[in-house]
Amino acid sequence: MGKITLRNVQKRFGEAVVIPSLDLDIEDGEFVVFVGPSGCGKSTLLRLIAGLEDVSDGQILIDGRNATEMPPAKRGLAMVFQSYALYPHMTVRKNIAFPLKMAKMDRAEIDRRVDNAARVLNLTNYLDRRPGQLSGGQRQRVAIGRAIVREPAAFLFDEPLSNLDAALRVNMRLEITELHQSLKTTMIYVTHDQVEAMTMADKIVVLNAGRIEQVGSPLTLYRSPANLFVAGFIGSPKMNLIAGPEAASRGATTIGIRPEHLDISRDGGEWPGEVGVSEHLGSDTFLHVHVKGMPTLTVRAGGEFGVHHGDRVWLTPQPDKIHRFGPDGRAI
Amino acid sequence: MSRRITARRTLIVTLAAWTVGFLIFFPILWTVLISFKSEGDAIKAPFAMLMSDWTFASYEQVQTRSNYSRHFMNSVVISLGSTLVALAIAIPAAWAMAFVPGKRTKDVLMWMLSTKMMPAVGVLIPLYLLFRDLGLLDTRTGLVIVLTLINLPIVIWMLYTYFKEIPGEILEAARMDGATLRSEILYILTPMAVPGIASTLLLNVILAWNEAFWTLQLTTSRAAPLTQFIASYSSPEGLFYAKLSAASTMAIAPILILGWFSQKQLVRGLTFGAVK
After folding, report:
1. Is residue B262 part of a domain?
2. What residues of B are in the A interface, CB distance below 8 Å?
3. Contacts of residue B270 in chain A, CB cutoff 8 Å?
4. Could you tell me if residue B215 is inside a domain?
5. pLDDT by residue (tens digit) across B233-242?
6. Which fold has domain A4-230?
7. How far is it, in rounded angstroms, from Cα A22 to Cα A210?
């Protein structure tokens, strides 16, 4: 079981308010991703759930029990740190066995679980090595191994992939997702990388300045962002946000249109413009188009769309894909 | 051109290092040399002294006149005892200051260090009277207590700086893994800080071994360590350079050997690879 409930949780460091007040329900077995820009309080929130920081006010319930005052060890949660935080003086086997040893489990059971975890994570040949003799990806797997042997109520991941190189990151992303599918344990995952958030999450929690901007499935956030912040944060490249007469004519203060929802043509359309920088990625081409009276618009065109700097083009937004936002920044 | 300058600089630096090293070592060397001379030769001019005959006579006399092994055992018990007690107090103290610092942690550290600035003789009489009333005069227990208190600030400071180097996330990981505070300090912090704790231990043993103010003031015979053993040869009876030197050599030899053999261990780092 791993249902986690936050009730009016607040966190202050002296005078600085990091989390003003926050409510959140995490269901058993869910993969929840906290995402937001750096300094938005996502790591602090995770550490509050872990018990590594004290809550200034409010309650944290784990499976219905009040865990607000519980020490980290008693909460039944396992955490994977950004730096892996392996014990450098212990072998891989001892690292993975440490939480079981702390739980005073008997030797045979410890060995059985460690061997099992090592097999799942492809670490069997490295059990007698020390962390210093492992690569980054292997260290990451040891950290995950140390978490899974405990069979915790929930896993907490604090930006676990940010120290890995790009190729390894994609691999580990898949491995963690697969792990979630086989264990079906609640996972809370903190990242600033929205690709990780979109690909891994059942539910994304978008945080900004300690507040929840929106909670929803990846596609819900993509299709109907609740406000300008989420609209600008989710999606890559970013949504084009246009204020002024063009927005007013559609009954909004700001309108948003994603690069992939702008049709581009050389012959005619709604907004005439001039091509600035074009980025050819092979599969896609991203064009930055200057349209009079608007900020530079990013457009996603086909991979082989051949245009040059200074070419004249017309853009037409797909009418059902236009997001409208009111004066308070909320979606209309 | 540049290579020659580098070579010359290396030569100068090497010579300077050897000179400084020799200057520091010279008094010990001179003491050892004198200890192998007769009393008559020992007070001769340096060159004549060096040219005179070598003899073990001083060592033999020191052996017969006083009980080396008792003083030695007292020194061992007092220096090791005070060091272990100091470590037992300092490890949790340094843990608290390194990993759960408060607003006043820096002030506390400075205050502890400031106690070392006070001249020891300033508290001699109160402490002496206290020891007399508590029956601690001339006891090993008494000296262990005094030397623990005297060296505690340095021990805490050294451990604090070593502990600061250990990433806090590793201790947090241990806490998440279910470690109690005791297991966290015992299984994670202490093994990771072994090089630091070892060098603190060694330095403190040396300081306690050589401590000559309190050991001379608070002991006479039963608990007298090697400092008393040396001092007994610089008595009003007159100058006995050779015997004094022999006693000194015998007193410093154990600690010198200990230092020599533990050099390597002190510099070995264990924390590499913990955090990328």
Report:
1. no
2. 167, 169-170, 172-180, 183, 187-188, 191-192, 194, 270-276
3. 88-89
4. yes
5. 876 656 778 8
6. Rossmann fold (3.40.50)
7. 8
pLDDT tens digit sequence for B16-26: 999 999 999 99
Task: Give yes or no: residues B79 and B133 share one domain.
Answer: yes
| Helix/strand/coil for A102 | helix
Could you tell me the residue range of the domain that residue B6 belongs to?
2-58
Q: What is the full per-residue pLDDT of chain A (332 aa) written as tens digits?
A: 789 999 999 999 888 899 999 999 999 999 999 999 888 989 999 999 999 999 999 999 999 899 999 998 889 899 999 888 999 999 999 999 999 999 999 999 999 999 999 998 889 999 999 998 998 889 989 999 999 998 899 999 999 888 888 888 888 899 899 999 989 999 999 998 888 999 999 999 999 999 999 999 999 999 999 999 999 999 888 999 999 888 888 889 999 999 999 999 888 889 999 999 988 888 888 999 999 889 999 999 887 777 888 889 999 999 999 999 999 989 98
Q: Please compute, for residue A95, the number of CA atoms within 13 A of its CA located in the half-sphere on the CB side.
A: 35
Of A72, A78, A88, which is closest to B274 when you measure between CB atoms? A88
In a domain, B153, yes or no: yes
Report yes or no: A4 and A188 within 8 Å, Cβ to Cβ.
yes
Residue B60 has pLDDT above 70, yes or no: yes
Same domain, residue pair B45 and B82: no
Alpha carbon A274 to chain centroid, angstroms? 35
- What was the pLDDT predicted at A78? 93
Q: Is B106 exposed, middle or buried (0-12, 13-18, 19+ CB in 10 A)?
A: exposed
Q: Where in chain A are the domains?
A: 4-230, 237-325
Q: Is residue B272 part of a domain?
A: no
Work out the number of other CB atoms within 10 angstroms of the CB of residue A282: 7
C-beta atoms surrounding A296 within 10 Å:
12
A50 touches B at CB < 8 Å: yes
**Residue A47: which residues within 8 A CB-CB, separation 6 or more?**
A53, A158
Nearest CB among A52, A82, A88 relative to B273 is that of A88
Same-domain check for residues B116 and B225: yes
Q: What is the DSSP letter of B121?
A: G
Mean pLDDT of chain A: 91
| Region of residue A64 (phi > 0: left; psi between -120 and 50: alpha; otherwise: beta) | left
Instruction: Please tell me the predicted confidence (pLDDT) of residue A164.
Output: 84
Q: How many domains is chain B built from?
A: 2
Residues in chain A: 332
Q: Based on the domain organization, do B46 and B132 belong to the same domain?
A: no
Q: What is the CATH number of domain A237-325?
A: 2.40.50.140
As a whole number of angstroms, the distance between CA A97 and CA B35 comes to 58
Both structure tokens of B253: 């030899």
User: Considering only CB atoms, which chain A residues are within 8 Å of B272?
Assistant: 88, 132
What tokens appear for A161 in the block? 């992939």
Nearest to B157 by CA among B196, B186, B214, B209: B196
